[in-house]
Amino acid sequence: MAQTAARRHRLPGGELAVIGQDIPIEDLVIDEVPMRVARPGGPAETGVIVLHQGPGYASQTALWLRQLAADGHLAIAPLLLHHRGEEAVDPFTRFGGDLAAFAAYLPGDDEIRADFTAALHLLNNEDIPVERSAVVGFSYGGRAAFLAATEHPVSCAITFYGNGIQYDGYQGNEGIPPLADRAPDLQAPWLGLYGEQDFLLAPGEIDDLEVTIGKAPVATELVRYPAAGHAFDTDMVFGPGAPSSLNQDAAADATERTRTFLSTYLGRDRTVTPTETHPAGEIGHDTATGRTAGSGLRPMARRTTGRVLARRCRRRRRSGRSTRRTAMVTPSERHASTRQTQYRARP
User: Which residue, 240, 244, 247, is CA-closest to 224?
Assistant: First the structure.
């Protein structure tokens, strides 16, 4: 049954926005893989595959499907837990908060590969080739988005707080190994969005991930939110009495960055030079993409780009200095006037 209920999301300052309230979400089955699909108002020339968190399809997934469809993309979310005969599961009810037991339950990479390939088949049936497709994933799905970008020439990939890329984040499940050694295989520009208070990451893991993505042959960018934790863009509670995971400022910033990243790379020539990291207050123009680095981005996040970081790390290792290098990103005046409308569907 199609889902047509509006999804409301609270923006910074308390404003409520309704996203894609008239966009239905269809149920489809492609290659025996159940999927949820949201279509734009007109013909779609681009597609985005959304990979949900480990607990399964949720309101967060539906929100993104409608947002992406409102932005003009054909948006698809394969239901990854169909391998376990379920759409979603509550890890605390089912596993009592035992992360190892939950990890062992999750489908492994071979199963996720089949689901992703089925989603690509659907896009191909809609005359959208892989080169005009992108992938956005969250947590467990964020790691899977990174994996997909090492195996398919998608236009770009975006990972929200994906544990299990740098180090083993799913101990007890050999089918979900760490992916750090796959960074040189990335075939598409990659954006990572991480909260520094993420309890699912090991100490220093984000620092090490910054170095790892420097080995990629494509543009990479890692954004860190100092005050945010895991699942910072959705209202989740990790255990009885725990506070909500939602960090509204980080959520708003990450959503804007995601939409900008998709707009920059989706369906365009991917032979780009990674944007240089600019110190606070500086603006630089990337002639390959036409983007202005340092504009329209918020000061509460820090960002680095992969190749730049790798070069600096090598120089710093030789000199004996610290390898960590990040830069504060300076906002533009334009951002201040648009931040309250970024979640609204386009008319």
Answer: 247
Residue 171: partners with Cβ closer than 8 Å, 6 or more residues away: 100, 103
Query: 113-118, long-range: CB within 8 Å, 24+ apart, which pairs?
Result: 113/147, 113/151, 114/31, 114/33, 115/33, 115/78, 115/80, 115/82, 116/49, 116/51, 116/78, 116/144, 116/148, 116/152, 117/31, 118/30, 118/31, 118/32, 118/33, 118/35, 118/78
CA–CA separation, 166 and 201 (whole Å): 9
Cβ pair 170, 142 in contact under 8 A: no
> What gap in Å lies between CA 8 and CA 347, rounded to an integer?
17
Close Cβ partners of 22 (under 8 Å, ≥ 6 residues apart): 4
DSSP 175: T
Q: How far is CA 201 from CA 34, 139, 182, in A?
A: 31, 11, 19
Q: What's the number of CA atoms in the CB half-sphere (13 Å) around residue 219?
A: 22
Q: How many CB atoms lie within 10 A of CB 81?
A: 21
Residue 16 Cα distances to 6, 64, 69, angstroms: 12, 16, 19
Q: What is the pLDDT of residues 61-119, one digit of tens each?
A: 999 999 999 999 999 999 999 999 999 999 989 998 899 999 999 999 999 999 999 99
Please tell me the distance from the alpha carbon of residue 283 to that of residue 273, in angstroms, as a whole number.
16
In this prediction the pTM is 0.77
